[in-house]
From TrEMBL:
Keywords, ordered alphabetically: Phosphoprotein
The Response regulatory domain, residue ranges: 557-675
EC number annotated for this UniProt entry: 2.7.13.3
Modified residues (4-aspartylphosphate): 607
UniProt-recorded name of the protein: histidine kinase
Catalytic reactions on record: ATP + protein L-histidine = ADP + protein N-phospho-L-histidine
Gene source species: Azospirillum formosense
A Pfam family per the record: Response_reg
Enzyme class: transferase
All residue ranges annotated as the Histidine kinase domain in the record: 1-246
Amino acid sequence: MRVNVDLLENLMTMVSELVLTRNQLLQILRSQKESEFAAPLQRLNHVTSELQEGVMKTRMQPIGNAWAKLPRLVRDLSHELGKKIDLQMLGADTELDRQVLELIKDPLTHMVRNSADHGLEVPADRLRAGKSETGRITLNAYHEGGHIIIEIQDDGKGLAIDRIKQKAIQNGMASEGELAAMSDQQIIQFIMKPGFSTAAKVTNVSGRGVGMDVVKTNIEKIGGTIEIKSQQGKGSTFVIKIPLTLAIVSALIVECAGERFAIPQISVVELVRAAADSEHTIERLKGTPVLRLRNRLLPLVSLQELLRLDDQEGGEKKTDETFIVVTQVGTYTFGIMVDRVFDTEEIVVKPVAPILRHIEMFSGNTILGDGSVIMILDPNGIASATGEMAMGETASKETTSVQATRQEDKMALLLFRAGAGAPKAVPLSLVARLEDVDLASVESSNGMPVVQYRGKLMPLVPIDPGFMIGQEGRQPVLVFADGDRSMGLIVDEIVDIVEERLVVQLTADRPGLMGSAIIAGKATDVIDAGFFLTQAYKDWFGSSSTDAYEEERALQRVLLVDDSPFFRNLLTPLLSVAGYDVTAVENANEALALCEAGEDFDVIVSDIEMPGMSGFDFAEAVRQGGTRWSGTPMVALSSHASPRDLDRGRQAGFTDYVAKFDRDALLYALQQTLSEQKGAA
């Protein structure tokens, strides 16, 4: 049965009107306490929703229809460009609205041409870079939360940041100074500007400077966003996020200066309430309002100022509290300041009247349940209208990243008192819990005080060997736990939790102490938790598998890879005190990512028993992959140290093999390995 498209369009329009009427009726029902209409209206609501879904399904078509011509296009391009190209299409049966499909057909075609021409290298270059001759372009489409995500990915050379910079300067889009202050992600955005092309010569495939700007415009026209990810030498990925249908969308209704607006939910990340009595307050940075949200500065846009609205309520309420709609457009996140937030509503999108079409802040209008007509805000338009702010955001991002790196150097430390002398400290990340033990419940086992804790016996270890445990009252205890074992360290009192950079200034000869550091303005003893753990369980360090941690030393950098957070936190202070600057990663893949990012280390310490890629596989990958680390010495950590394991470790490429529970041997092995390396150099 063939149905005319116009008939379907008309049906969709009628259902949209029905949805609006349903919204109005429900609004009336909300204002009535009890009404005989409640039950039939609820039924009408369900029927309307099902009808809407049914009609929308009739308009749905698999995205494969838009991809049908792409294999032919890629075949022709591979002949024309002298490249071998393999096109993979995943999720071709993902359905989306016919209208949307029509509008994305051309952008998709253009982007596949781009990947083939700009992204993929010629076979000879690919072989030189250690890749296969055949380049791969992958198209992937899938549903995610009421939207369609389309990814166009290639395994080519990635975007040439330097070429983009040159072209941006040449076209007068930015000065060298501005470019120097920008992140790679921001420089990549230039390829979306009109008239921008990095092609060396104009061909019938590329170089005309008409391209990504048109793609971006078309995608934004249908309320979508486009995001670019690129890695030099690895390839690029373009992620397009578009709504399922253009007719009915879910939107958040907000109010500003007495006017209501709708913001499409596709762009809303979260809502934040900023007020004097809340943890979130609005600050000003060079005159621009910003919000400090989870250690990040978020640039804010005042909807009232942007739309030049006069505050009908005299502006008194504004000082009270502000709601911030955190919005994301591509990779740019910003907050829109509004006075009130209502609920989300299914709205029918009506096109903007021609007289308002030039205002890019609006993408349409709709009729709410109470019959009032409101404008739908376009987050893409708002982002571009605050273009000057995007530059300001660069500066704030830079500040934040510096703050973040400084923050990372700091460590949360638990301060406590135990015995005479200076206050003591231990990294908070090692302490599982703080407990107050009833001394009457303390028993003795094997000459050691123990307490029944969570169904198991937990040994209690005093910091001062001469400490006599009392018979009554309560005793503060720091609980250290890993896997199914736990140990209680007896202390006199918990003082504080502070964030400080741990720099041990005096090393200690006393067992159980690492040394002294200035913490919270006082000389403090940093305890060696590992010493007390082995007092409770001799084989504590042989119990669980640990991932090698990556460590960087100030003079000699060490990378330690270890999947157990407990052991990472235990070894980090130990290695820091020994004079290394420690960087921790939890698996071999993260370590290899550091290698690709160009990080260099003097020695790599890796655990053997790790989920996923084991230490042996990691060592082989480093040694045989021809990576920049192929000459870096590697030390293996394992709870098994049999001769067979030692042989296997040497074959895999480890320079030395240390039993995990022998921490002195680890420090000695590092010292030996590094001095041998120096001697060899």
